């Protein structure tokens, strides 16, 4: 039987609770007996900083490099607000993304039928919503140099972040978006700010050139990122795949989450380039949400985004599409049965906590 190695990095806050639910799902698939998932757990984020003084150790990075997939919870929280920038909790996640070469972040925003009335938007705008946001993850303003805060002679401080993109970085993420669109609705919106940013001009040019190999079956529309944000609340169903840079991708996917009912519903997959010999990709799967310190440790968090992220691992890392579909159906069924964590609570529904939601999904899987 094939054994796959999973590195679990729960991180901080509700990451710990939602990863615990993923462990139960992993256990279910181990008992199902098709493959074996061997798990190992390590620290990241504030938890790693508290113990080791860094947001991720070299030893944990080594495990991540060797794992077949990393399943990540969440990092950060006010406890670490004063921590130096280079070792703050988020630095652990950024190092994982950069060192593993995880340039393609897939963030599906799907509105489950039972949650159409939990959305921040009207039911008719979100019923059947299925958008894939493709966020470039290892470039842009997150990593561009210089990146600094300096004190000027006047005593005033000056902060700089630098947005950098190269042709090859844009081309490879555009290809991911067009390839995905071919298996979905054949439409890509490319979002940038070419009216004010040079990186937007280059982004637009390279996406247009890359599109030539995918036309005419895949349609391409360019959209300014601010207009994209507005259209996501005005008429989200016009979108199929949205490809965009690191920062806009972070913002637009949080916005899209509210159309699905809650940030607690959005999973993600961060993928590297396929290895030239084996075809295998480095991969990290994590909920889009953060560590939610206000509800951490109370058993209130919605585990669905983290569980669905493991579903993406089944699909993208382990060629277990059928099992991923089963997991999606189990999630849809518990929602249809009226179970709700606080973030997606609606009148007349049955309010449950993190572990109860996990148990209900497991129960559905066992049927
Ligand atoms: N699970 C997501 C998480 O923990 N996010 C915290 C974070 O570092 N976010 C930075 C980003 O993704 O832009």
UniProtKB/TrEMBL annotation:
Source organism per UniProt: Hyphomicrobium album
Transmembrane segments: none
Protein's job: Catalyzes the oxidation of 3-carboxy-2-hydroxy-4-methylpentanoate (3-isopropylmalate) to 3-carboxy-4-methyl-2-oxopentanoate. The product decarboxylates to 4-methyl-2 oxopentanoate.
Main localisation: cytoplasm
Domain of life: Bacteria
Positions contributing to Mg(2+) binding: 226, 250, 254
Subunit structure: Homodimer.
Positions that bind substrate: 97, 107, 135, 226
Protein's UniProt name: 3-isopropylmalate dehydrogenase
Catalytic activity: (2R,3S)-3-isopropylmalate + NAD(+) = 4-methyl-2-oxopentanoate + CO2 + NADH
Location in the cell: Cytoplasm
Cofactor dependency: Mg(2+); Mn(2+)
